[in-house]
Amino acid sequence: MQEMDISFCDMGLFGDGIEHFWVEDLKGLLEEYPDLENPHKQDFYVLLLIKKAEGEVMVDNQKIRLDKTKAIVIKPRSINQLSINREAEGKIICFTEDFFSLRYNNNQLSRFTFLNKSGGCFVRIKAADWEKCELLLSLVYNEFKQKKGEYTHLLRSYLNIILFELERQCPYSGNQKSKSVGRSKIKKFEQLIDQHYKKEKLPSFYADKLNVSANYLNRLCKEETGLTAGDLIRKRIITEAKRLLIYTDNMVNEIAYALGFESTSYFVTFFKKYDNHSPEKFRKKYLS
Question: What distance in Å separates the CA atoms of residue 89 and residue 152, rounded to the nearest whole number?
Answer without folding.
Answer: 25
